[in-house]
Amino acid sequence: MLSLLFRIEPDHYALDSREIVEVRPLCRLKQLPGAPAWVAGLFEHAGAPVPVIDLCTLALGRPAHDRLSTRLVLVHYPATGGPHLLGLIVEKATEFLRSVAGDWCDSGVATPDTPYLGQVMHHERGLIQQVRVSELLPASVQALLYGGTDG
Amino acid sequence: MKHWSLRQRILGSFALILALMTLMAGIGHYQLTAIDAAKFSVQRDALPGLYYSTMIRSAMFQEQMLVQQLAEVDSTAQERKADFAKLQANTDRLGDFMKGYDSTIYRADDRANFEAFKVARARYLEMRQAVFALDPIKQRSEIHQAFVQRLIPEWERNRLLIQRFVEDNRAFADQSTNRIGDAVSTAKISMIVTLLVALACAMLCGYLLMRTITQPMKALQEALNTMRSGDLTQRLTSDRRDEFGQLESGFNQMADELTHLVGQSQTSALQVSASITEIAATSKQQQATATETASTTAEIGATSQEILATSQELMRTMGEVSAVSEQAADLAGNGQASLVRMENTMQNVMEAAGSVNAKLGILSEKAGKINQIVTTITKVADQTNLLSLNAAIEAEKAGEYGRGFSVVATEIRRLADQTAVATYDIEMMVREILSAVSAGVMGMDKFSEEVRRGMAEVQQASGQLSLIIQQVQAMAPGFQQVNEGMQAQTIGAEQIKQALLQLSEATRQTVDSLRQSSQSIDELNLVSNGLRHGVSRFKVQA
């Protein structure tokens, strides 16, 4: 199992590579007025608009630093009415982690406000926690970002 | 009547007297008219009536005589004819008289009597005609009989009638005359009465007028006498509304003004007296001050003598100071030359620092270029990393087939990481160089600043020295001026001495004139006392 590692502050998190379509450098985003602050905007991919959310804003309340290591990860999002593309802005996304399913275990902590945080794994750099793409968007934001294409 | 003005009173009195005189004239005129009427009746009625009736009566007697002659005496026809002519003439005359009487009749009873007489006369004439119709010769006895029996009684009747006329007219004439007399006496009495009344009225009016004028005049005279004696408190209060009322109000006003004036004069006299006393005191003070001035003047004279001596000494000292200042100017000139040399050296140092700065700038620029290259390398490494990530993802998706590719991707990523580390080291070094260069630049700037400041100070010192030289040089003519000033001061002190002598003389004269003015003030005091005494004679308050 291959995971893309990134950081939120000093902590490491992992994204399953099977959910990832492409890792891209940061580009200019079209802002979305009225959306929550952590919805960073829209960008165009293969002729279709893709909504982008900022995980730093979502987790910490501050936008991600504008660095070369800050990257835009294009993932499959299993929304109602079929899979869609979703862009995630993450910091320090420069490494992979190769692991097996047995390395991961439940964190044992209920986090109702952050349902996207999944299993954890021990690593020489510290604990690494999985981020579940399917739980990232609350229903309202999902309706906001993908509601327009359902009908 | 009391509030009538004097003019109205005089006019009223005259009008009253004039009215009385007019009344008198009217009464006289009326009575004279009555007398005139009586006179008229006497003239036109009584007297002519009396005359004509008398004449008629005499004519009737003559007629009767002629008739008797004709009837009884005349024998010849010639005589008869002559007598007839006479009788006719007499009858005509009588007729004329009757006509005349007729024109004098003005009363009704007279007229009636006359008409009766005319009828009787006509009857008589008729009878007489009848008598003379008889033949005078043949019927002589008949004539005589007719004459005696009828003509004479008829004539007698006529005579009686005419007699009554005569008496009547006479009585009327008497009556008229009496009436004239009565009218005259009435006129006399009424004129006397009116004259007396007019006289009485005139006297009464005159007395009243006199009283009206003399009474207030007396009061006015008394008031004037009181005022003349110096008592100004008296006022007239008769409350009249005529000319004297105006005169009194004028008098009272004048008295008020006079009282006010005299009051002011009294106050002023007191003030004048007080002022003179003050002036006298002031004059005494001035005298004392003048004496003091004289002594002060003497002191000033002594002081100016001292000033003279001091200024001569000062002149000598100034000469010495002048020499010393010339030496100081020379020394300052030397110092200035040294400072100019120092300034030049510093200029050179400044230029060297500038060139060091320029070299450091070049170094900084180069470091910047290196930094650019490092950035490019970093970007390449980043792209490589990205590429390796995507390659790994794709390889993973490919499963077993992608395994080899995955190894390559990992290797690429490792190389990219090494590149990143190397570039990081280079970046660090360049950063250190840049900070060292900027520290050097800053140090050089500080050094340049110090040098510049030193130069400015040197220039300032040089400027001050040249200023000192200038001032010292400028002092030389100043010393000259001071010298001249001192000489002028000496002369001035001499002049002051002269002026003080004159001032002393003037002060002495001032003291003399002040003494004279003191005498004058004493005289003035006497005059003022006289004035106060004179004014105090008036009494202004009750």
Automatic annotation (TrEMBL), chain A:
Q: Which Pfam families match?
A: CheW
Q: Which InterPro entries match?
A: CheW, CheW-like_dom_sf, CheW-lke_dom
All residue ranges annotated as the CheW-like domain in the record: 1-142
Q: Using the record for this protein, list the coiled-coil segments as residue ranges, or answer none.
A: none
Database matches in PANTHER family:
CHEMOTAXIS SENSOR HISTIDINE KINASE-RELATED, PROTEIN PILI
This chain's protein is named Chemotaxis protein CheW
Organism for this UniProt entry? Crenobacter oryzisoli
Q: What is the lineage of its organism?
A: Bacteria, Pseudomonadati, Pseudomonadota, Betaproteobacteria, Neisseriales
UniProtKB/TrEMBL annotation, chain B:
Name the SUPFAM superfamilies on file.
Methyl-accepting chemotaxis protein (MCP) signaling domain
- Give every HAMP domain span: 211-263
Entry-linked InterPro entries: Chemotax_Me-accpt_rcpt, HAMP_dom, HlyB_4HB_MCP, MCPsignal_dom
What residues does the Methyl-accepting transducer domain cover?
A: 268-504
Provide this UniProt record's keywords sorted from A to Z.
Membrane, Transducer, Transmembrane, Transmembrane helix
Q: Which Pfam families does this UniProt record tie to the protein?
A: 4HB_MCP_1, HAMP, MCPsignal
Question: What are the TM regions of this chain, as residue ranges?
Answer: 189-210
Top-level taxon in the UniProt lineage: Bacteria
Which PANTHER family does the record associate with it?
METHYL-ACCEPTING CHEMOTAXIS PROTEIN MCPB, METHYL-ACCEPTING CHEMOTAXIS PROTEIN TLPQ
Q: Which family does it belong to?
A: Belongs to the methyl-accepting chemotaxis (MCP) protein family.
Q: What is this protein called?
A: Methyl-accepting chemotaxis protein
Tell me the organism: Crenobacter oryzisoli
